[in-house]
Amino acid sequence: MVLDQQIEHIDLLAQQVVEGFIIGLHKSPFHGFSVEFAEHRLYNIGDNLKHIDWKVFGRTDKMFIKKYEEETNLRCQIVIDTSSSMLFPEDKTKANKLQFSCLATAALIKILKKQLDAVGLSLFDQSIYFHSRCKSNTVHHKMLMTELERLLKYVPEQKSTNTANVLHQIAENIHKRSLVIIFSDMLDRISDSAELFDALQHLKYNKHEVILFQVQDGKYEVDFDFENRPYEFIDLETGEKLRMNSTQLKETYIEKMAEYRKEIALKCGQFGIDIVHADINQGFDHVLLSYLIKRNKMV
Predict the structure, then answer these.
(1) How many C-beta atoms lie closer than 10 Å to residue 132's C-beta?
(2) In this predicted model, what pLDDT tens digit does every residue of 48-78 receive, in sequence order?
(3) List of residues 6+ apart from 296 with CB closer than 8 A
(4) For residue 279, what are the CA distances in angstroms to 80, 133, 262?
(5) What is the CA radius of gyration of the chain?
(6) Where are the domains of the chain?
(7) CB atoms within 10 A of CB 159
(8) pLDDT-derived band of residue 41, with 50, 70 and 90 as boundaries?
(9) How many other C-beta atoms can be found within 10 angstroms of the C-beta atom of residue 58?
(10) Which fold has domain 2-25+72-298?
(11) DSSP per position, 252-291
(12) What is the pLDDT of residues 231-287, one digit of tens each?
């Protein structure tokens, strides 16, 4: 599989830094079986008889133990923005923002799987169109990886985003305290920034730990490093076009983008949200490794 080939070396990353990343995050002092069923396994001598599924025994004449999601493990909901702006850059020689997010998510799933932690996935553009609850069983992991494979081959469509509304929904849909990891360029309309910050605060109000990976192409979207010549700039979400020389726009663009990024970082700091400025030109593995090492030192 293409995805497996691209994240093959993530196993090494996980062995090096995952322990410090996971320790201390939402660990419960309570042990034992929870109420959320995960899967069956064959009965072994010494297993507690009260966990045998007698209905299955009646049908198959074989004893199976009900396995449940452990409440002591971390629950992680990964949220990916799949709107059209995430398809930038349209360059087949490197991953775009959406592909970067998919590869980083696949790596995180492998890390969480190693720790026997539960993971869920939410995908959105104007609304949430895919949402899986946090689970830790193998079938669930395979399903999530298949969904990421599909996204890696995503055919561009003109889809806008409504990040604020979606994050409010995520906050309401996750009923248990979780680690919420968001991959988004956060390029909603600047005029809607107050609504966006309210949604981020909603997640924190519901006691979730939040990590925001603001995924951007640093060269073009932050530094506006275009050659000094005329361009036709196209809004991938609306199709709106603007024709002008890049130098006419550069100074104002850099100033506005810097202000917006600073405002997001400031609000995240106020809300206790960890923000990571993820430049796709650095590669998903470098960005994740740098963050996990930083997190390891903080724990």
Answers:
(1) 16
(2) 777 788 888 888 888 888 766 544 468 899 9
(3) 17, 19, 20, 21
(4) 16, 29, 16
(5) 21
(6) 2-25+72-298, 37-68
(7) 17
(8) confident
(9) 8
(10) Rossmann fold (3.40.50)
(11) HHHHHHHHHHHHHHHHHHHHT-EEEEEEGGG-HHHHHHHH
(12) 998 888 888 898 989 899 899 999 999 999 999 999 999 999 999 999 999 988 888
Q: What are the tokens at 91?
A: 């360059």
Would strands 209-216 and 179-184 be described as parallel, antiparallel, or unpaired?
parallel
pLDDT in tens, 6-22: 555 544 544 444 544 55
What single string gives the DSSP state of each residue in 84-137? Answer: GGGG----TTS--HHHHHHHHHHHHHHHHHHTT-EEEEEEESSSEEEE---B-S
Please name every residue paired with 216 in a beta bridge, in sequence order, or none if there are none: 279
Tokens of 205: 């109000």
Q: Closest Cα partner for 291 from 252, 89, 278, 109? A: 278
Residue with tokens 């740098």, as numbered in its chain: 290
Q: How much is the pTM? A: 0.78
**Structural tokens at position 58:** 């009646």
**In terms of residues, how long is the chain?**
299
